[in-house]
Amino acid sequence: MLSIGKYSVGVGDRFAHQARAQLQAFVTAREQGVEVVPVWNKSNREHTTIGSEPSSTRAAADAAARELHWSGPYHVDADHIRLETVDRFVPHSDFFTIDVADFIGKPPAAADFSAFIAHHGDLVGRIQVPGLDQPLDLSRADVERIARHYLFAVKEAGKIYRHIEKAKGAGKFITEVSMDETDAPQTPPELLVILTAIADEGIPIQTIAPKFTGRFNKGVDYVGDLAQFEKEFNADIAVIAYAVRQYKLPATLKLSVHSGSDKFSIYPAIRRALKRTGAGLHIKTAGTTWLEEVIGLAEADGPGLAIAKDIYGEALDHLEELCAPYATVIDIDRKKLPTKATVQGWTSRQYVDALRHDPKCPEFNPHLRQLLHVGYKIAAKMGNRYLNLLKQCEPTIARNVTTNLYDRHIKPLFIDGR
Questions:
Q1: The CATH number of the domain where 266 resides is what?
Q2: Does residue 147 fall inside a structural domain?
Q3: Beta-carbon count within 10 A of 227 CB
Q4: What's the pLDDT at 57?
Q5: Which of 151, 266, 335, 343 could cysteine-pair with 108, CB 3.0–4.6 Å?
Q6: Other residues' Cβ atoms within 10 Å of the Cβ of residue 124
């Protein structure tokens, strides 16, 4: 079976120009003695917005691996796919993030529900899970409630998995199940029931993306109770390890943290957990590369700064349209967004300081950053004007892309404090 490495990072590349700069960060990690697997991910929504095809993601990843003589594993993720969107990804992807969040809460078929409850009396009672301070204590009513809430979604994941398996063959791809884009976080007992149902479906899941407590807004830091996050993260690691042993799930199964980009405040808790338990991690940093492109353009000054200013102005004009698809993962205060006229008067340094995610910088503006994070559609509409400047300003952009990925993400998560 194709297996995912212990540590992996999902990297986005909206315009398929930064794969080499991204891969350089993984080369640097390897030089430090740590193998981190790059996974290029791009969703159907992003391809539709840009007007690109999944083949472009594969081509960019393959080219970067050739150019940098990368001998390690790497993957291309069909990100957040569903049954109606998966087929265009099948020839080009070897990693599939099956998103079933929209199916959570739908009632399962009576026969499926009855069969699950009848088969899993082992879930009722006190369950000793190594790594948890207290045993899980589930009544039959608890198991029934959780199954009613999640079983339909797991069945949908099984349907999508088997569709991919029929096309690609068993063991030829990595499967992730995503349940993060929903209203409520999954508790440890819920995660255990979910994993049990996934095992029953025969899905060889290697990463699972639950929803955690707190806000995981696009491109900015975590908002929430850090102690509660750490408690949940450690509990989820323990439940996964238990489920792997109990239900014969793949030994490579690990947590996946979505919208993990720039969640700097939770990185120490994650690092402590990985070091203490030896667990693996998949974390997605997708959209930050697009922002590093804009930072690199602004830093290059001249035409680069001019187009960065125009992108912001157009994004401000189309704020509602751009934000609507991402409403659950952004918090933008319009009153804290600078006017178009203000930004048009900025120097290169002012623009970079406002956009670059440096919480210690007084000029950093998280509201502007979130708006630009969802504003890549503006650059897509600019066509060759934008793409040509990516080539023209490549050295500056590449430096920002590599530095951001290695120094702010890979290093604190996987290398510091070894």
A1: 3.20.20.70
A2: yes
A3: 9
A4: 97
A5: 151
A6: 16
Q: Classify residue 1: in a domain, yes or no.
A: no
Let me know: does 75 contact 175? Beta carbons within 8 Å.
no
- Residue 414's φ and ψ, nearest 5 degrees, are -125, -15
Query: Are 395 and 411 part of one and the same domain?
Result: no
Domain that holds residue 31: 7-287+406-415
Query: Which tokens belong to 287?
Result: 């959209």
Residue 14 carries which DSSP code? T
Residues 87 and 216 in one domain: yes
Tell me the C-alpha distance between 6 and 413, whole Å: 13
Q: What is the pLDDT of residues 343-353, one digit of tens each?
A: 999 999 999 99
37-63 burial code (b ≥16 CB/10 A, e <16): bbbbbbbbebbebbebebebbbebbee
Prediction pTM value: 0.96
Provide the CB-side half-sphere exposure for 413 (13 A, CA).
Answer: 30
Strands (E), 288-384: none
Same-domain status, 307 and 269: no
The 3-state DSSP class for residue 2 equals coil
Our CA dihedral for 297, 303, 305, 309, rounded to 10 degrees, sits at -110
Residue in the block written with tokens 């199954």: 147
Residue 219: beta bridge partners? none
Within a domain: residue 341? yes
